[in-house]
Amino acid sequence: MNGTVSVTCDFCGRQVEGEAPPLTWTTSLERGRVRRYCDECSRTHLRSMEAKLDSDWW
Q1: What is the pLDDT of residue 33?
Q2: Which domain of life is it from (predicted)?
Q3: 11 near 41, Cβ under 8 Å?
Q4: Which residues does residue 30 pair with via DSSP β-bridges, in sequence order?
Q5: The pLDDT value given to residue 22
Q6: Is 11 left (phi over 0), alpha (psi -120 to 50) or beta?
Q7: How does DSSP assign 33-58, residue by residue?
Q8: Domain ranges in the chain?
Q9: What's the pTM?
């Protein structure tokens, strides 16, 4: 194992290195599971997130 830790966007699969997502990413709790979305996916799906729709509906 190389010891590199990365965070993955749960919608598009984009990855960034680090233990925590960047401050521009969105974190949500859906059905008891923590999900993270990159800044691009967050902007694209903002209205659905504000309506608290699960990502399955996007």
Answers
A1: 92
A2: Bacteria
A3: yes
A4: 33
A5: 93
A6: alpha
A7: EEEEE-HHHHHHTHHHHHTT--GGG-
A8: 6-57
A9: 0.75
Tokens encoding 41: 């996916």
Longest CA span, the chain:
40
Q: How far apart are CA 3 and CA 30, in angstroms?
A: 29
Give CA angle at 55 (45, 29), nearest 5°.
105
A 10 A CB-CB count for 7 gives 18
Neighbouring-strand partners of residue 53: none
Higher pLDDT: 13 or 58? It is 13
Q: How many residues does the chain have?
A: 58
